[in-house]
């Protein structure tokens, strides 16, 4: 990794990292602030959720609102978290390679003594560092809000909360990995964004379709989003080792392939 390039790219992208991190931290805090009202009306709200269609409950990953862990898993980590991190991973992966090639900036980087492989690896580390910053800010927001607003009898174990966030990091490590690989293949920023975004949307759609319609539950086997089930982590029923192994493998292989592809392909410089 080239440290001079890493520091320069971190400096130019830090504002985006902080903005996404603040957005995630604010959302998890807002969702947490709603739970005391739900806890005060627990029986009525659980009676109301019994009227929800089973398909909707499965899609939300919700069993009940009986604990803060189940609530925050369904209302934040199953919805807004995936949207925020999905947009970040795809957008940043494209900006760090395809955008520089498309706008001619890559020619300046490659005119120095830094090799192509070193440039691609350094850009990958910038993306991974950005993901880590957002997750750390989300953890900080969730722990502070939970400690301040949630009654102890409803609180989530810190270990389970950290596991939800760590597995979330690995999910978007994998999404960022294949998006970075796609970014390394294209000269056009818009095409790279369209392909990476469409693939992510298809994976998410397969997972949701499998949750909503039990007859096509097998579709979830083709989606990496099926490996991230925050509700099951909160209740201690998730197979964390299997999900960790698969998501880490997808991310590592994708980033390594991206470096290899970027090193060997013809660039319009």
UniProtKB/TrEMBL annotation:
The keyword Transmembrane applies. The chain crosses the membrane at residues 20-39, 76-98, 119-150, 162-181, 193-214, 240-262. Keywords: Membrane, Transmembrane, Transmembrane helix. This is ABC transporter permease. It comes from Pseudalkalibacillus berkeleyi.
């Amino acid at each position: 990794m080239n440290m001079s390039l890493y520091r320069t790219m971190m400096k130019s992208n830090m504002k985006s990292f902080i903005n996404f991190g603040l957005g995630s931290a604010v959302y998890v805090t807002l969702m947490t602030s709603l739970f005391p009202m739900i806890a005060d009306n627990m029986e009525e709200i659980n009676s109301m959720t019994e009227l929800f269609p089973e398909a909707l409950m499965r899609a939300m990953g919700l069993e009940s609102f009986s604990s803060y862990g189940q609530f925050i898993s369904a209302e934040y980590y199953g919805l807004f978290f995936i949207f925020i991190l999905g947009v970040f991973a795809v957008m940043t992966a494209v900006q760090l390679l395809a955008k520089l090639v498309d706008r001619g900036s890559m020619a300046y980087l490659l005119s120095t003594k830094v090799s192509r492989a070193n440039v691609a690896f350094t850009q990958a580390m910038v993306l991974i560092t950005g993901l880590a910053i957002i997750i750390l800010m989300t953890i900080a927001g969730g722990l502070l809000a939970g400690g301040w607003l949630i009654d102890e009898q409803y609180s989530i174990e810190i270990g389970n909360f950290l596991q939800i966030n760590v597995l979330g990091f690995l999910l978007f490590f994998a999404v960022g990995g294949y998006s970075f690989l796609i970014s390394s293949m294209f000269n056009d920023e818009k095409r790279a964004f369209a392909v990476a975004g469409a693939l992510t949307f298809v994976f998410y759609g397969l997972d949701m379709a499998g949750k909503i319609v039990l007859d096509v539950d097998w579709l979830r086997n083709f989606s990496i989003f099926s490996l991230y089930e925050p509700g099951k982590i909160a209740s201690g029923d998730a197979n964390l080792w299997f999900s960790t192994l698969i998501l880490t493998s997808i991310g590592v292989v994708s980033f390594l392939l991206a470096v290899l592809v970027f090193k060997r392909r013809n660039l319009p410089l």
